Amino acid sequence: MTLFNCKPAKRIASGFHPDPSICEKPDGGYVMVNSSFEFMPGLPVFESEDGEHWTKVGHALSRPSQFPYESMGNSQGIYAPTIRYHDGLYYLIVTNVNVGNMLLTASDPSGEWSDPIWIPDWPGIDPSLFFDDDGTVYICGNESGCVDEDGNHEEAGIYLSRLDVTTGEVLDKRKRICGGITGSNPEGPHMLKRGDMYYLMWAEGGTESGHMENIARSNKADGPYEMYSGNPLITNRSTHLTLQAIGHCDCAHFEDERTLMVFHGTRNNDEYPAQGWIGREPYAVWFTWKDGWPQLADQSYDCTLNGNGDALEHDVEWITPGRDDYGRYSVSPNQGVADSDESVFDIEVSASGNDFDLPNDGAPLIGTRQTDMDCLFEAAVVPGVSCETAVAGIAAYGNDKHVITVSIERGAAKDSESAENAPNKQGGKDSTSAEQYTVSAQVNNAGLRSTVGSIAMDGSQPVTLRLLGTNAGYVCSVQTADGLVHELGPVPGKVLSFTNAGGFTGTLLGVFAHGTGQVKFSQVRYQPLMASR
Ligand code: 6LW
């Protein structure tokens, strides 16, 4: 593949952590937050000493009083936060698209964060805060078009007001300060200041393959803003680069000679338009300044050139789609594992009263973000002992209508293949004496379910359900107690990509169960396989 003249960008977190916002800590170092949509715990918070190596230190949303998550649908909930530090306190301003815009505060970014201060008079999404030198606090955010309280139509664009951060009161009528350079989805604005000059940065072009970031400046906070003639500041649109859909920037050290900029993008296989399914991940670059504008030698960035994109510490973190199933899981480290470097877990799922069917309707699921294209996700169950429910399995979860599952269920599936290699047919075992189970790989694509492959077996022996992630997608298989691996079939990963599945999230690899009873998954393991892309 030909790589264009573009610079390497360093990935600073893997798996979907979109819409990065950063600020400097008063004693040195940085804090970052990301969107989390319907998932709990939400609003992941990272810290870094150098802006390049980041560690997750907690979540700003950890309790129902902050995030009424029960009724969150796909890609609803928490969008595009902004984090700022002012006068001893960290402020986080963010949209919950199901409720409205809110502010949270904390004296320590790792938590605890306050309950929300709601900002009822600020419609639209992607709010940002700016603390000016004279004590004025501004809120800016984007509006896709609405009717204001006086019945006037508000055009799409970026709006500004003064805000009381202690009450959430919007102090004056908001003003439209920017319409973007194309008019296509100007969003994710941040106001920053350098000397006496106010700068407005915003994403544009939609968060998909047309994504970009632009910048403008003014000597007054409410404009008029002068567009940078070099816009877009960054974009990878219409390229074959591995990294696509770059934009949604925020900066630290904005007043200094070297400025740290973060943005997000999607890793892709070699197809265009972007078919990456891991989701939007954050990257960081440093830039310098010339004549009052950022000096970015190239607009394009890729994640493969410096080879360090994957050299991130692996982070297994269990999250759940925010539905009424939050709290039905207990996750514990697997004690029986000698190699302590590996992250291996036991997970118990309480499926009582849960009639959902994951491949069809969504269901209780607990998962970890897929952080590598090439990876292995597996979990062991003993069907007759640890699986009392109707169905228990593992999933590559894009959203509740786009899921790939490898699951076991009681009974012989109608479309189950005759399992020539199944353990109940081997070694002269009498299959009639044990209860019948079926392991199957299934895909739900846009709500349409199909079986990729299935195999029948008895319920007395443990099975390991397996999803092998590759640059092309997933290979589904099951390993039986005799060590044999039965391949159930491949599924293209683009089923889960946002070009197919829609929405703003990425892939979770997790375990699920539905029916009634407890399911015990043991040896639940996520393993990156190679540092490839
Ligand atoms: C977010 C918007 C965006 O609100 O995607 O890429 C939306 N930018 O700014 C959801 O993450």
Automatic annotation (TrEMBL):
Gene3D superfamilies associated with the record: 2.60.120.200, Glycosyl hydrolase domain, family 43
UniProt cross-references to SUPFAM superfamilies, sorted A to Z: Arabinanase/levansucrase/invertase, Concanavalin A-like lectins/glucanases
Enzyme superclass (EC): hydrolase
Record-linked InterPro entries: ConA-like_dom_sf, GH43_C2, Glyco_hydro_43, Glyco_hydro_beta-prop_sf, Glycosyl_Hydrlase_43
Keywords: Glycosidase, Hydrolase
Pfam families xrefs: GH43_C2 (PF17851), Glyco_hydro_43 (PF04616)
GO molecular function, one term: alpha-L-arabinofuranosidase activity
EC number in record: 3.2.1.37, 3.2.1.55
Keyword Heme: no
Any GO BP annotation: carbohydrate metabolic process
UniProt record similarity statement: Belongs to the glycosyl hydrolase 43 family.
Name of the featured protein: Xylosidase
Classification of source organism: Bacteria, Bacillati, Actinomycetota, Actinomycetes, Bifidobacteriales
